[in-house]
Design goal:
The structure holds three protein chains of three kinds. Chain A contains nine helices and ten strands. By secondary structure, chain A is α/β, with parallel strands linked by helices. Chain A has two domains: 1-79 and 166-181 and 197-246, Rossmann fold; 87-164, no CATH class. A six-stranded mixed sheet of chain A has the order 6-7-8-3-9-10, with helices on both faces. In chain A, strands 2-1-4-5 form a four-stranded antiparallel sheet, with helices on one face. Chain A is globular. By secondary structure, chain B is an all-alpha fold. Chain B has one domain (28-254). In chain B, strand 1 and strand 2 (86-87) form a beta hairpin. The chains are: A alpha/beta, B mainly alpha, C mainly alpha. Chain B: The chain crosses the membrane at residues 33-54, 61-80, 86-111, 118-135, 164-185, 211-232, 252-277, 289-315.
């Protein structure tokens, strides 16, 4: 079954079209990258996908169900996880608490008032496993605010993994990463690839072409081409869009 | 560790000193301590949403006032409840106080919590003022002039007319309130409201309906404050709309911030310092609001994290 | 319903609405541009009344009293901005609320020390004490003056915000703070100016009401909440919203208090109407606020996202 199916999506802000008749599908297990110049409407797209904004017209189907007007928390419960472009962690909590909350989100209702959450092994152990997977286990007890930018980005991935999501929306996971951190992130994403369906929104072209199964190119809110990395590289319209910017 | 010692020391002092003063003929200090402990309960419950949940309610005095009127109005109508030989009006009044304030919290919370930030501050303030004007407009219950409670709540095994027993009830209630808040904030529910305080958008995209969690916390906090109000009505035996004036809400907030928001002991420390200061300053000058206001400004500007924060700086231990 | 009474109450509502606008416009301006919640805004309303009362008694003339009190109130606003508000701009709203709450206590007590605990009545000149006959309705001329002055102040404010360079900066500051700084405009002076403007408007409202209610300690404490209701309903930061909501709240409150029992009598017994009407009319504006927020959580005219 198609994981995500976006058809004819439109969204305007005061006359400016941020999303323009956008159509996109994600097949199970695929890593699908969306690239595009600055201001192409990538963030608006992801906001609509996760439900923080609603489109003016068009439809979003997730796992076969219409979710166009569904609230973010209900989409998340259906199995959609999102990482944020600007690091968006709960800074005054510990690293492990952040990830454990993601586990907790999947573990039934949280209207539970009595048992201390930090003593519930079924929340803490998966959280620690995810931290291990992204190489942050030794920092589990640190306050989140004390970690570096690269570590924050990896926490984002750990959180998305911890939700056991069917679909991960990764909003520029490479943003602001240089050298070693960037290489580590690519390796991390490669290790996840195949396990989960991933929509990757990314600026870093090297990373995108190294990781993606398919790439969609977004220009002024409209997808001008979709295809395998090689096809995209050879596409004239894409070259023009990018050359035009540079 | 240092923090635990402080908590035990403060609570032990509150357990021992006021009764000793009372028994040695200084009834005044017991009165002061009773007020302190009752306002402490209100501050502890405000802190649940303000300190841990990041919901800056500027209307919590309304819950205190409603709780007090829930004791005063049945007493005014001479409604006494008996069970066998016991007169047990308190067993009706106190649950009524809790239920009424919980309901008020639910109804106003449904609207307040749709908003964020400064809107929330102002709307909670406005709703509290609404209750204030409502009570003022009901002449039957004294309007502006307030209402004298002729008979305190009657409870089995307890005589609230005895100041020592009233203090005992208030003190134990404070312990329970602190225990409840400590339990809630450590629970899964507590993690969610603290997460929503830190980053609401993140929590929603994780799948938490933060509105529902916030609303629940708001109702719990309101009901606890209502309970404190029922105690306050029994203590003062005089209730008036002035109890829910917005400046009272401001004072509750100040207690929380002064003591240290987001800590279990902080609000109690804050209430203690507040009451003592109020007493000392007002005995020196009738214009005590002047130094008091200046101090409030200074605390906000210079003391981050309140007294608990200061304590952490001095004696170590995690904030 | 008596048409004369209705007209009078309508004008009273308009008068209340305009006074509310003068207070609320300053609040919404300061919040919209400085992102600063000023509980002590109403203390400036009170100070305006007292300063004007002093000048009026000294000079024996209310008009001179107002004209002198306006710049003095602006000056007080500047001092408050410099001493208390400025260190708080970078803080969160909780800190701002608490510190300005402390400021209210300080200003109230200071006013008590200066002017004494009793209120000060402000005498009006003879030509303002009279009545004006319009058709079948007789109106006190001073109330008409309040309405006129309120409308003029509102018009002046709209002109200032929409058609002047200062207004452009104010609007730019509201929507894009970094841009204003990037333009090389001294943002601190701009903030101070905006704050003083808000203070002056609140002070003017206090001056205009003083001859009716007299200047008294704590007179601002109920006004500030109503002003909050106004800017919440109007949309915090929106001048147009503040104007419309202020008139709406002023009219609803005044007319509700006068006529709600009559309206209730149409659908219930006289006795029930007379008991419930005062309670409901006391809550009316809050009920309206709740109703507005239930549908529009950011008020009727939410300012554009920053």
């Amino acid at each position: 079954m198609t994981v995500l199916e976006v058809t004819g999506l439109n969204k305007s802000f005061g006359g400016i079209k941020a999303t323009d008749d956008l159509t996109l599908t994600l097949e199970p297990g695929e890593l699908h990258a969306v690239i595009g110049p600055n201001g192409a409407g990538k963030t608006t797209l992801i906001s609509q996908l996760c439900g923080l904004q609603f489109p003016d017209t068009g439809a979003i189907r997730f796992l076969g169900r219409d979710i166009t007007r569904m609230t973010p928390h209900r989409r998340a419960r259906m199995g959609m996880a999102r990482s944020f472009q600007i690091t968006s962690l709960i800074m005054d909590m510990s690293v492990e608490d952040n990830v454990a909350l993601a586990v907790q989100a999947r573990a039934g209702t949280s209207f539970r008032f009595i048992r201390p959450a930090r003593r519930i092994a079924s929340l803490r152990e998966p959280a620690r496993a995810m931290l291990d997977r992204v190489g942050l286990l030794d920092k589990a007890d640190h306050p989140t605010v004390a970690l570096s930018h690269g570590e924050h980005r990896r926490m984002e991935i750990a959180i998305a993994l911890a939700t056991q999501a069917r679909l991960m929306l990764l909003d520029e996971p490479m943003a602001g990463l240089g050298g070693e951190d960037a290489a580590e992130m690519v390796a991390l994403l490669r290790s996840i690839k195949g396990d989960r369906t991933i929509l990757l929104i990314e600026h870093d072209m090297d990373a995108v072409f190294a990781l993606a199964d398919r790439i969609s190119v977004l220009v002024y809110g409209h997808i001008i081409a979709t295809g395998a990395p090689d096809e995209i590289r050879a596409n004239a319209a894409v070259q023009q869009a990018y050359l035009g910017e540079d | 560790m240092a923090r635990k010692i402080l908590t035990v020391a403060v609570l032990a002092a509150l357990a021992v000193l006021p009764p000793v003063f009372y028994l040695t003929g200084n009834a005044f200090y017991l009165d002061l301590a009773t007020r302190l402990v009752i306002l402490g309960i209100a501050a502890v419950s405000l802190n649940l949403i303000l300190g841990f949940g990041g919901m800056i309610s500027f209307g919590h005095a309304a819950f205190v006032g409603l709780g007090a009127y829930a004791v005063g109005i049945p007493a005014y109508h001479w409604l006494y409840y008996t069970a066998g030989d016991w007169a047990v009006s308190g067993l009706a009044q106190i649950p009524i106080a809790v239920a009424v304030t919980a309901l008020f919290a639910l109804l106003t919370g449904l609207i307040c919590l749709r908003t964020r930030g400064v809107y929330f501050i102002m709307i909670t303030m406005a709703f509290a003022q609404m209750v204030y004007y409502l009570i003022v407009s009901i002449e039957e219950y004294g309007g502006d002039d307030g209402l004298v409670i002729d008979t305190r709540s009657q409870l089995p095994f307890l005589d609230l007319d005895d100041p020592l027993q009233l203090y005992g009830l208030a003190y134990v209630s404070l312990l329970v309130a602190m225990g409840l808040v400590a339990m809630i904030v450590k629970s899964r529910f507590g993690m969610v409201i603290q997460g929503a305080k830190g980053n609401d958008e993140r929590m929603r995209t994780l799948g938490f309906n933060t509105y529902a969690y916030r609303l629940t916390a708001y109702v719990i906090s309101g009901a606890m404050c209502g309970y404190a109000g029922a105690l306050l009505g029994n203590f003062t035996t005089f209730i008036s709309p002035e109890m829910m004036d917005w400046t009272r809400s401001g004072e509750l907030m100040f207690m929380v911030i002064l003591g240290g928001a987001g800590t279990v002991l902080g609000p109690v420390l804050g209430a203690t310092v507040f009451i003592v200061l109020e007493e000392v300053l007002s005995s020196i000058t009738i214009h005590w609001h002047l130094p008091f206001g200046l101090m409030l400004i200074a605390v906000v500007l210079f003391v981050r994290g309140g007294l608990m924060g200061l304590f952490a700086v001095l004696f170590g231990g995690r904030k | 319903m008596d048409l004369t009474l209705f007209t009078i109450q309508l004008l009273n509502g308009l008068q209340l609405g305009l006074l509310l606008f003068l207070v609320a416009s300053g609040l919404t301006l300061v919040f919209g541009i400085l992102d600063f919640v000023n509980l002590a805004h109403a203390s400036l309303y009170m100070l305006g009344a007292f300063i004007c009362a002093s000048f009026t008694l000294w000079l024996g003339n209310f008009v001179w009293g107002v004209l002198l009190a306006l710049p003095v109130t602006a000056l007080v606003g500047l001092v408050v901005e410099r001493v208390v508000a400025r260190p708080l701009y970078a803080r969160d709203h909780l800190d701002q609320v608490l510190a300005t709450f402390g400021l209210i206590l300080v200003i109230d007590t200071a006013a008590q020390l200066i002017w004494g605990p009793a209120g000060i009545a402000v005498p009006l000149p003879d030509w303002l004490e009279g009545q004006v006959q319009i058709g079948a309705v007789t109106l006190p001329s001073f109330r008409l003056l309040i309405i006129g002055a309120g409308l003029m102040a509102a018009a002046g404010l709209f002109w200032l915000v929409n058609y002047t360079r200062l207004g452009m900066l104010i609007r730019a500051g509201a929507s894009n703070r970094t841009m204003v700084s990037a333009l090389g405009i001294d943002i601190q002076s701009l903030f101070a100016l905006v704050f003083a403007l808000g203070a002056t408007l609140a002070g003017l409202a206090g001056m205009l009401i003083a001859p009716i209610t007299e200047a008294s300690i704590g007179m601002g404490n109920s006004v500030i909440i109503t002003a909050f209701v106004v800017i919440i309903v109007g949309g915090i930061g929106s001048m147009k919203g503040a104007f419309i909501a202020a008139l709406m709240i002023g009219l609803i409150d005044t007319l509700g208090r006068s006529f709600l029992d009559d309206i209730f009598k149409l659908v219930m017994s006289t006795e029930a109407a007379e008991t419930s009407a005062p309670a409901i009319s006391a809550m009316l504006i809050y009920i309206i606020m709740a109703a507005v927020l239930a549908f529009k959580p950011s008020g009727l005219f939410p300012p554009k996202v920053r």
